[in-house]
Design goal:
This protein is of the alpha/beta class. The chain folds into three domains: 3-88, Orthogonal Bundle (Arc Repressor Mutant, subunit A), CATH 1.10.10; 95-162 and 278-307, Periplasmic binding protein-like II (D-Maltodextrin-Binding Protein, domain 2, 3-Layer(aba) Sandwich), CATH 3.40.190; 165-276, Periplasmic binding protein-like II (D-Maltodextrin-Binding Protein, domain 2), CATH 3.40.190.10. It has helices spanning 3-7, 14-23, 26-33, 37-51, 67-95, 105-122, 174-182, 213-219, 236-244, 254-262, 292-307, and strands at 56-59, 62-65, 97-103, 126-132, 146-152, 161-173, 197-201, 229-233, 249-253, 266-268, 274-284. Strands 3, 4, 5, 6, 7, 8, 9, 10 and 11 form a nine-stranded mixed beta sheet that branches. Strands 1-2 form a two-stranded antiparallel ribbon. Helix 2 (14-23) packs across helix 4 (37-51). The longest helix is centred in the N-terminal third of the chain and has 29 residues, at 67-95. This is Glycine cleavage system transcriptional activator. InterPro entries: LysR-type_TF_proteobact-type, LysR_HTH_N, LysR_subst-bd, WH-like_DNA-bd_sf, WH_DNA-bd_sf. Keywords: DNA-binding, Transcription, Transcription regulation.
Length: 309
């Protein structure tokens, strides 16, 4: 091994360090890099061993950079940014035009991915990269061109483009609806929910109160009541899948389940949809609004939503 090789750490350890330092969390770094938390932790330990210094202070349920870690991050982060940008520029002539889109996990899984082939058919030279995340990503740092986000009314960033309003309503599969009626447990009025299994999104911190059953019941004027059972899932696409499989009644986000309703796979109950004070918007990264592929993508999303309203 020559002197140059010994002066550099294993380069595959650097993205893990940069992500952990940016999030101050091994868990969030692992989610971003599609690794396990223990894999990221091992990478950091290996890097610290190579450097001979401690980069992080491991506190109880918290992570902090040491002075050495802060100094190392100031050098590593811009270097990785330059590598990402150089890679993007080299790939573009080979693959056409690279477009990076970030959105929520639920929008990606239930709305965007099922339709993406149609965009690719219309724009075959656009190489689309989807960065689905529950976190609001730094668009410049992550090389993101367009973000699609569900934003509360009055908090829309300047220049954002409205895509669709947000409505919610109880939903179940067509088979579940008919079976409930045949079993003399009809779903004729909201109070009938007490005889059925309700499907929930796991939300211990109250991050998504607008899709909580408790919120809907309160706004519908219902007193709290015990139901026949509950099912709880970590992601909204799992909630939709469980509803499609007839496992209970879910809170439907109409933009995300509209195709299933249109195909009569899901039934909207009680004939009432609640309009929320929030909507989906597209946001361009600085400079991305001038890129034809970014404009084409946003126009396509708007047209897809409008055609199914």
């Amino acid at each position: 091994m020559d002197k140059t090789s010994r002066s550099l750490p294993p380069l595959d350890l650097l993205p893990g360090f940069e992500a952990a330092a940016r999030h101050l969390s091994f868990t969030k770094a692992a989610e971003e890099l599609f690794l396990t938390q223990s894999a990221v932790s091992r990478q950091i330990l290996a890097l610290e061993e190579f450097l001979g210094v401690q980069l992080f202070e491991r506190r109880h349920r918290a992570l902090a950079l040491t002075e050495a870690g802060q100094a190392y991050l100031r050098t590593v982060a811009p270097v990785l940014d330059h590598v990402r940008e150089a890679t993007r520029r080299l790939r573009e002539p080979r693959t056409g035009h690279v477009l990076t889109v970030t959105t929520t996990l639920s929008f990606a899984a239930t709305w965007l991915v099922p339709r993406l082939a149609r965009f690719r058919k219309e724009h075959p030279r656009v190489d689309v990269r989807i960065a689905a995340s529950g976190d609001v990503l730094d668009m410049a740092r992550e090389g993101i061109d367009v973000a699609i986000r569900d934003i509360p009314q009055g908090h829309e960033p300047a220049g954002s483009i409205p895509l669709a309003g947000e409505h919610v309503a109880p939903i179940c599969s067509a088979e579940y609806f008919e079976e409930a009626r045949a079993a003399k447990r009809p779903l004729a009025k909201p109070e009938d929910l007490r005889h059925h299994v309700l499907i929930h999104v796991h939300d211990p911190t109250g991050k998504w109160p607008w899709i909580a059953w408790e919120t809907w019941m309160e706004s519908s004027g219902l007193e709290p009541f015990t139901t026949a059972g509950t099912l709880t899932f970590g992601q909204y696409d799992q909630v939709v899948q469980a509803a499609l499989l007839g496992q209970g009644i879910a809170m439907g986000r109409m933009t995300l389940v509209s195709d299933h309703v249109r195909r009569k796979q899901l039934v909207v109950l009680f004939g009432k949809r609640q309009r929320l004070a929030r909507a989906y918007h597209a946001i361009y990264a600085p400079g991305a609004a001038a890129r034809p592929e970014a404009q084409q993508f946003v126009s396509w999303v708007r047209a897809e939503i409008a055609s199914r309203e």
